[in-house]
Amino acid sequence: MSAINKIKSTLENGSSPEEHSKEGRIRSYLRSDFIRSMPFWLPPTLLMGLFVYGGIFWNFVISLTDFSGVVRPEYALSNFDFEMYTRMLGDPSFHAAARNTILLLVVFTLLCLLVGLLLAILVDNLLKWQSILRTVFLLPFALSFVVTGVFWQWMYNPEIGTINTMFNLLGLDALALNWLGNPSLRLGAVMFALIWQYGGYAMIIYLASLRTIPQEHYEAAKVDGAGFFVTYWKVIIPQLSSASVSIAVVIMVFSLKAFAWLYTVFGSNPGPAADILGVMMYRVAFSANQWAYGAAIGSVLFVGTVMIVTPYLYYQYKRGEL
Amino acid sequence: MANLTFDEVTKKFRDGNSEIVAVEELSMEINDGEFLVIVGPSGCGKTTSLRMVAGLETITEGDLRIEGRSIKGRSPQERNAAMVFQSYALYPHMSVRENMSFGLKQSTDLSSDEIRKRVDEIGDVLDIPELLDRKPDDLSGGQQQRVALGRAIVRDPDVFLMDEPLSNLDAKLRADMRTELQRLQEELGVTTIYVTHDQTEAMTMSDRIAIMNNGKLQQIGTPMECYYEPNNIFVGGFIGEPSMNFINCSRDAQTLSTDDFDYEISESTAMELESATNIVLGIRPEDVVVVPEPTEPNDIAVEVDVVEPFGKENNLYLIPRDRESNEAVIGTVNGRTRVESGDTVGMRFPEEHIHLFDGNSGVALRHPVAEQEELTPFVG
Amino acid sequence: MANLTFDEVTKKFRDGNSEIVAVEELSMEINDGEFLVIVGPSGCGKTTSLRMVAGLETITEGDLRIEGRSIKGRSPQERNAAMVFQSYALYPHMSVRENMSFGLKQSTDLSSDEIRKRVDEIGDVLDIPELLDRKPDDLSGGQQQRVALGRAIVRDPDVFLMDEPLSNLDAKLRADMRTELQRLQEELGVTTIYVTHDQTEAMTMSDRIAIMNNGKLQQIGTPMECYYEPNNIFVGGFIGEPSMNFINCSRDAQTLSTDDFDYEISESTAMELESATNIVLGIRPEDVVVVPEPTEPNDIAVEVDVVEPFGKENNLYLIPRDRESNEAVIGTVNGRTRVESGDTVGMRFPEEHIHLFDGNSGVALRHPVAEQEELTPFVG
Amino acid sequence: MKLTTTVKNAVGWNDTDLNERFEQVQRKHVIATILTVALAVFWVSPLWGGITTAFKTQSAFISTLPLTPPTVDQVTLNAWAVAWETLSPTLWNSLIFTIPAMVFSAVLGSFAAYGLSMVNWRGQVALMTAFILAIFLPKQGILLPLSRFWNTVDLEGILTSLGYFSLPFADPSHTNLIILIITHSAYGISIATLLFRGYYLTLNHDIVEAARIDGAGIYAIYRHIILPLSYPMFMVVFIFQFTQIYNEFLYALILIGGSDPSAGAPVTLALAELNSGFSQNWNNQMAGAFITAIPTLIVYIAFGEQFAKGVEY
Amino acid sequence: GGDSNTSSGDDGSDGNDGSSGDGGSSDGDDGSSDGDDGTTTLELQHWWTDGGGAIGMEELQEGFTEKYPNIEINDNPVAGGGGTNLQAVIRQKVLEGDPPSTWQDWPGANLQDYVDAGALKDISYIFEGEIEENYGDGALLSARAGDEENPYVAMPLNIHRVNNVFWDIASVEEAGVDMTSIGDPREYVEVLEQLDGELDIAPLGLSMAVPWTILQLWNANLVGLHGVEAYEGFQNGDDVTSEVEEALEVTQTQMGFATEDASSVGSDAARLKLPQGDAVSLMEGDWAAGNLFAAENYEYGDDWGHAPYPGTDGVYTINTDGFPYPKPNPTPDATDKWMEWVGSAEAQRRFCQPKGAIPCRTDVDMSEFSELLQNQADDYQSGTGILTLAHGDGVTPQQGTSLKNAMARFRDQGNVQATAQSLMDAMTL
Ligand SMILES: Nc1ncnc2c1ncn2[C@@H]1O[C@H](COP(=O)(O)OP(=O)(O)OP(=O)(O)O)[C@@H](O)[C@H]1O
Ligand SMILES: Nc1ncnc2c1ncn2[C@@H]1O[C@H](COP(=O)(O)OP(=O)(O)OP(=O)(O)O)[C@@H](O)[C@H]1O
Ligand SMILES: [Mg+2]
Ligand SMILES: [Mg+2]
């Protein structure tokens, strides 16, 4: 049983009803931790509920109307339909954006974990400069997309950009590609830049998690005859799975923020190769004044993300940590 | 299976600017198939010695040889030593079978089938065939311990290295595992170095005990040698539970005097002491004879301060009468003995059972008369 | 300071759909100022019993009374019990002084000055005045243990509750703290319930021992009662180290027979057994008499399988000759005894020292003849 | 040769006992050091490009590569001056709402995590799920409802009727800033709750029980035990939230609707002023980017260690 | 479509009348606040925070406050995203019924949604007379939200010409090409080929990171190849498939001549390719001249040249900036005055000269303007004005978004037929 359940049951049992009379029950109910802990969880719940779920619900209602232009919609049941959702089905822009969004949520998250892990392993094996290099990798995390978007526009410049300059210097001219221009590379380039920005976060959590693995496991593997790579691959990395899950959740949140990066670099029109639902929603609503359609995209995005996160929640629930 | 030689092995750690000498000029020979226990207080360098054999620490000076061939500089993989860690260090994400197979996969060319067969065999030996598909987290402490052993055994190593493998178990289980480990080692006949700070483990399990203190070897010998003929005060105090009683005396010819009493020794004993005047008298609690009242010349009148009952025996904390001293002499009496805190009794140190040490160097000057008794019933 | 009554206390946990009965109809009375040790194997309900007293668990059935007044339904704050946790549970962010003051601040109206004075006092009692301004993380295990004690003592509670407070310490320190705890409790005279699974602690520290198994109380009594007059096989086996030997016998009149040997009992003993035919003979290792060879009628010829040397004594694992059986009888002999694995010797169970239990219910039918001996020297 | 020396210094070799060291400092450390340093150089290169640009004259910018540092006659502080002039009035606004919002979201998140970890009731799992899902809210999707909401709630009127504006420090811009504080707090709660909850799961529950026995109630336990022990996680959440809120653009854009500093506009809106469409002045923009990033960079460099420690739980 | 637009426009103007009554009453409020401290605050939002626009804006405000000292201007810019940020803000505010006094926007069809919502006031009373007479037709059309049927709802301030070609004289001379005599976009393509063959640098500077520049190029090609009729046909939703496709094909070919980094540079970086010597020619709006003028040692006429985009001589593709008049209006009097000021020759002179655009009015003294702008002004007065598709003047927000979206697809996927179809579909939205 997890520690938390123990805490729960202690606190719960500590003053749950023991008296059997009605009066006593009410009294002890009022004294129960459920009631007494209310001041702790109720205000944040209300605030979060109002803004987040109120907003989501409102957004959903808008998606049922025909709201466009700059005339406020009439919220009447008779106006409600799912037209915007059917429209989505036939919209090639939506298909492209949905595909890219899923790719970003899944592939970017995985890559980010991978890079974070590699960085963590490297930093963990340093004898010196650990803390300074750790800070270096974490620095981009502090910056806003408005800034990093511009940086990467330069980095990717096929002529004067750092990336291609580097490849040319290394004699790998074949790899000096048109990163943002070539539609088939664009999304990958976006992910790479995002990894640069968020890899440090993954690294820092992985580092923390690596520290919890007893030194004996490395030594046992060594004595067992495993080399450096086998030790990590077979012994260490599998033990990081729960850290990976929790990093993945946060990284997925970040991947939704790719909106700001794309918006900085491509405006509201990254093209089908890199369009994502967040950008499309903004474009549709705030450039084309098609609020209802934008709202519908927003609802789909939220539900879709939730579906991707559900396995995580279930995993947490199974482990009794929800 | 091999013999192992420590040749003046020294290990220094750099700690900032200072140097820590963890092991100092350790020399000993461990015979093929022997079960050697290294014992000593915390920080005395036991683990470090073991890890040098495993190849997890480098050797600063001296040499280590297996079957006469130096293993200095070889990587752990090349040493064919198997290690059991105090924390077990089982890989939590692998099943028991995978844990046990891992070393074989990494360091041998055996086919999966052979590995499977071997693991099954060892599983049988250790009586854990039904656990093979579980994860370590689903096992009890004792079962984990067994798996950790299995992981070492399965590799059929030249040397077993065990670092306090039983210290995470509770008393009962520890006693069981002790016997089992011993039986297994005998069966397999693999040269074994076993590290512990628990002298009971050292006594009961080992062929020979190596006692270390402050990085230095104090004594190496069979349990009985170490118990009955400790080289010095340290060994005398460390081996045996409860500890040997030590009494500081000044000697004048055949008289050992303390503030509380005088103790006359025989001439032959006195001769063994040569010219030493600063003497520590050592006597084990079970050798202290408690009598209803002092009758013989050397008997001392004492008060029973505390009675610690263990069932079969009681430990009496005896304080010389009319003394404020808190330094009690512990004497063991039969568990059925009617004696209570506050009683006044006599305490006797039979001369044939006393140890005498040089008070300055701590070196043993005289051991009890070596007497191996014929079978006599135990009168606890 | 108060007496404490368990009145048919039952605790059930819901675990999914099934129910776990952690404690079943536990009734006992703990006297004012008494030191009661609850002992039993893992999972027997010791901790649960303690936590019910603390108010950390509710009581499913039955009642708990302090000084005759039910404390059921009262919150922990209202019970005036202090608890020492196995993990110490010191507040890591508070200094030792703050740790000790916290309870007083929360549950009394004492002024800061009074609290300070009281903490200083207790600091002196525990000999930790110089630690008061340190943080727990800067203390050694033993010091932390002392602070945890201090935190409990300072509140001057009606009851002390301690859940395996020494199990995180190493053997030597544990032995020291044992004595100290006992001394303190005697000094303060606070009713104390102490939970452990270590029978040595139970024996040496307690006024009385309560032995639990499977949620049920097996026996409550002084250490000597529990050791010499165990109520049943469980208690007999649990108390004492090494454990009592048990031998299943079938009885025909005055003869107890096993596959290996017959054992004749006296008429008077036979009468105590009444009609029971399925008998378990129990004898403690130190009561087993090992003789060079069988001479008397009840003597059994055995082979020494293993010799476990402890220094002052050896445990011999004795196997009836010509038998494949692995079930050895353990006999303790003097440490100086010359005996080796493989020797053939005789084993004798003196009738005055045997326990006889009903083979079906496990209940004790006959205890050894109660004999408290006068002081005799210990011949280990 | 030079490389070896560098590496030797890096891994702490000195020339004596080199052989011994070579065994101890294994190859993997050397390789790790080389790789990590190379990656680190790559990692900072975009930032480096930004810095060099910010110090270059416009013509130097046109004629040189971003990563080459400016020569003496190409250096100018002009861009910094321009950027500072544009941004400085709004930097303060940013801090005024970022810090309270960071504190509120962290405190409320810690409240929620405590309240939801320490009690057991039927709806608890559902509520926790709701908190976690809330993290995934696409924020572009609720801009419209959000601005509707704040237009319906007449905060200015409320503040006026509360007499807020007669306070000495009050400023009309505070209406907007308070709107931002509340909004960011509300949206930050969910991630803060998640982070705190993960941390509270690792706390030794014996401590809580000890406090109960010591006579502490739910509030006292939070106040005296949980809160002080949450320090490392507060550092993490603070840093996390500071970055997220400070760098946020969309909410401020829609809720404040202009980069007028006296209306409470944050620095992110003002930064956009340096990038106004048809002709972009990179030098100013880069200088602006760095000025904007100063607070977050300070936070990371000063508290990065705490962040790293805090996430170890 | 047009009909219902018109009728809703009528409705709008009905409401307009009603709310000008409202305006009157709030006017009264204003008056009372006038009485209090004698000043009114005009809230002005725009995105000119940098470069020539910022200087022009300063001039504009300065002139206004000189003229109306008791009207204070609350200068509240929303920069970034080439105006999209401001537009997002304004739409929110209009939806909330809480617009600023006025704001910078592209007049023309871009305002159609506001007109439909009745959110803009009929300001014919300001236009009638002097302003109407002196404004060019294109500017007046954009003031009517791009639709002759609408009343005047916005005051255009300046005009940019979108159909231009710029070139680097040294390079062109090296290649032996005459940029001024190119007849149409196809010939331009041949010129590009020739440049490509002769020179090491890219023939064309073009930004493809954002789709509006491609849309702008295509727009120019359509007019250059098929004249104003094709443009009008396209705008009216006629079937001009073959014309659209041909223009797309040409555009696609041209994109092939762009600099290698076209897809990752913004429009400003693309313009700088000329002074940097990385590209020979450039199809851009005349705002690009601002960048070229700004480059050191790079002089108009000596180092770089300008001409109308091939085939569009005599056509003036208009991109205006202006100020819509929202209702309800927080400061009707002050906004009236602002509108009058913006419509004045003085204001347009002060603004347009630093901005690098020509005035909407034809009676502004151009003597201090650059030679290039003087030429442009002449062309504006003599040529046919059409509203640009790449910005807001000629298309509604919906149409504009769809056109750009189609172009972004075109850039990535290069499918001429599909793009033509989406482009034409967009215009029927
Ligand atoms: N990596 C290291 N760096 C510096 N000093 C070390 C290192 N490892 C051990 N030491 C020091 O060497 C000495 C011996 O340590 P070692 O671990 O061998 O003791 P031990 O006998 O195993 O003790 P324990 O019973 O506590 O495990 C100690 O003083 C310890 O502090
Ligand atoms: N909160 C709980 N929920 C369900 N079952 C529980 C809970 N707490 C204890 N139990 C069960 O009740 C029984 C008694 O547990 P308890 O902790 O009292 O044992 P214990 O004697 O203290 O054991 P140990 O020596 O291992 O500490 C066990 O079977 C345990 O699994
Ligand atoms: Mg050790
Ligand atoms: Mg327990």
From TrEMBL, chain A:
Location in or out of the cell: Cell membrane
PROSITE patterns: ABC_TM1
InterPro entries assigned to the protein according to its UniProt record, in alphabetical order: ABC_transporter_permease, MetI-like, MetI-like_sf
Biased composition, class Polar residues, residue ranges: 7-16
Gene3D superfamilies associated with the record: MetI-like (1.10.3720.10)
Residues covered by the ABC transmembrane type-1 domain: 98-314
Keyword Cell membrane: yes
UniProt entry tagged with the keyword Ion transport: no
Database matches in Pfam families: BPD_transp_1
Listed GO CC annotations: plasma membrane
Keywords for this protein: Cell membrane, Membrane, Transmembrane, Transmembrane helix, Transport
BP GO terms, sorted: transmembrane transport
Transmembrane stretches, start-end: 40-61, 102-123, 135-154, 187-209, 229-254, 291-315
Protein origin, superkingdom: Archaea
Membrane topology (UniProt): Multi-pass membrane protein
Annotated spans, Disordered: 1-22
Family: Belongs to the binding-protein-dependent transport system permease family.
Protein name: ABC transporter permease
Species whose genome carries this gene: Halorubrum persicum
TrEMBL record, chains B, C:
All residue ranges annotated as the ABC transporter domain in the record: 4-239
Molecular functions per Gene Ontology: ABC-type transporter activity; ATP binding; ATP hydrolysis activity
Organism taxonomic ancestry: Archaea, Methanobacteriati, Methanobacteriota, Stenosarchaea group, Halobacteria
NCBIfam families assigned: PRK11650.1 (NF008653)
Protein name from the UniProt record: ABC-type D-xylose/L-arabinose transporter
Quaternary structure (record): The complex is composed of two ATP-binding proteins (XacJ and XacK), two transmembrane proteins (XacH and XacI) and a solute-binding protein (XacG).
Function description: Part of the ABC transporter complex XacGHIJK involved in the uptake of xylose and arabinose. Responsible for energy coupling to the transport system.
Enzyme class: translocase
Keywords, alphabetical: ATP-binding, Cell membrane, Membrane, Nucleotide-binding, Translocase, Transport
Enzyme Commission number, as recorded: 7.5.2.13
Automatic annotation (TrEMBL), chain D:
Broad class of the protein's primary localization: membrane
Record's subcellular location: Cell membrane; Membrane
Top-rank lineage group of the source organism: Archaea
InterPro entries for the chain: MetI-like, MetI-like_sf
Annotated ranges, domain ABC transmembrane type-1: 91-303
Biological process annotations from GO: transmembrane transport
Pfam family, one: BPD_transp_1
TM ranges: 30-51, 91-113, 125-146, 177-200, 221-243, 286-303
GO cellular component, one term: plasma membrane
Bilayer topology: Multi-pass membrane protein
Keywords: Membrane, Transmembrane, Transmembrane helix, Transport
UniProt record similarity statement: Belongs to the binding-protein-dependent transport system permease family.
Protein name (record): ABC transmembrane type-1 domain-containing protein
Organism (species): Halorubrum persicum
